Amino acid sequence: MAKANESEAVVACTNLTKTYEGGMVALRDLTLNIERGMSFGLLGENGAGKSTLVRLLMGFILPTKGELVVLGERKVSRAHPRIGYLHERPYVELRFTGRKYLEYMAQISGLWGSLNSRRVSKTLELVELSAASEEKLAAYSKGMLQRLCIAQALLTDPEFLILDEPTSGLDPYSQWKVRQIIAELRGRGKTLLICSHYLAEVETLCDTVGILQRGQLIRSGTVKELIHTQDAVEIILRDEQEAGELVKRLHIGESVLETERNLLKIRASAQQEILAALVRAEVAIQRLNPVSRTLEEVYIQTTRAETNRKAEASTIP
Amino acid sequence: MLETTHAPDTRAKTGLWRSPSMTVARLTLASYLRSGWMWGEFVMVLAFLAILFFPYLESTTYFNGTVTFSLGALAILGPVVMVRQATSARTYLLLARLTSRAAYSRGLMIAAALLRVPLYAFFLALVLLLHRLTDPTPGPLFWGAVGIIPNTILVAVLTVALCSPMATRLKRIYFLTWVALLLFSFKPIITIPTWLESLLSVTQIPLWPIIACYTLSATGTFDLFSALGLVLVACLCVLIALVAGYWLEKRELLLY
Questions:
Q1: For B86, which residue in chain A has the nearest alpha carbon?
Q2: Average pLDDT of chain A to the nearest whole number
């Protein structure tokens, strides 16, 4: 991703490295920028470095090397009042009621008096927990706790939200509800960083993604770019013409990836040549589409390719 | 949706009560109360009362002397439990709201310190209500309180500072080494050269304000020595809070 001006970027990491005690390298030379208003999805398998990056962004741990600026602050904790943070697990003080807990959290953020109660009520309403606000948190379901944690992240109406596994382990309704809230926040122009294992969710909620593997950013870009970047084009022939026969007749087999009834999947690089051949043969074409992949396919291909590349590199004497 | 006022604009700057440290302290105490552990400390006071004041009646001097040690022990045990409870993965959500982690350690210290006052009051009330003192005169009891409470607060503050995540294991080992040397300086178990004995007596210096406050509670006589002791205990508490805050700021926080 292109390096942007730090003042424009909500997050600007340059060559960020984190080595834990014992020498375990969790992040290696990570350079990443998250621009204002961006909804950034951070993907990666367990141990890829996502949680380490989140901890660094929140200032819970310190980088071993490199630079990190969050909302223009090098001392990250100074930016805390402008960040909403959702931990990967809904750890809260279970002995309080939902309202009492949020009131305390708002007070710690400097919200007092009528502003405190208004904000608490509004966020409870937003996450649909108003009715359960006087119940003890110990009686909440996991989905309710997660929504409460989202509510605490929104108390100060922060400009940047870090959502670590926002729908992990939730039932389908709660997942849907949380996604609705996130989509609404995105619609309001909030800058979001979403760490998730649910790739379909990231595809829907994020405009940009980064894939981490063993502490390195192996791929990043907009979701549109990633799911459309495939060296393949789909041609659908009109009048149910048999694609397989056509390939044989026109001798274009080398550039064809796949045929199925009237569908012809070809290499994008051979698109002009094959179209010319089809026009010459007066073959009617119904539609031509660049082949889209799901983010899941992009993720699997990218991570596998990187694993294979590293395996090959390690076998070269 | 939410009002679009950003947090920094809405930050209340209206005194100590609304400071982040004080809010952390209130939250910690509320959580400690609801967990039941706070009642545990009061039950311990009952146990100390039973051990120290039954079946015999005792003097105010005896009360002031024994309460310093019993509440001192409680000022170690209670804050250890309190800090242990207050520092888990859920602390991340609190720390994520603070611009300085030091506010969190200060909050824990305020909570631990504040609780020493009702515990002392409870002990005193029990002793008086059950008529366990032979000479319950207000003067010695008042000066006793003035000497005992700061000492137990200092112990509580120090205990919080030495708990994880403020102090590392190594720092706790250093502290225990100092305690060992201190005890050895009072009563060496082997014969040591005089110069070494003098050298070891240096370890007693930080104890001086505590001794001054203890003397105040034991004798009930307020003089320049005890006044200086009280001021120094307060200064030590502030110093420990600053050091613990610095330690916490510098630490890698991996809480589970």
A1: A93
A2: 86
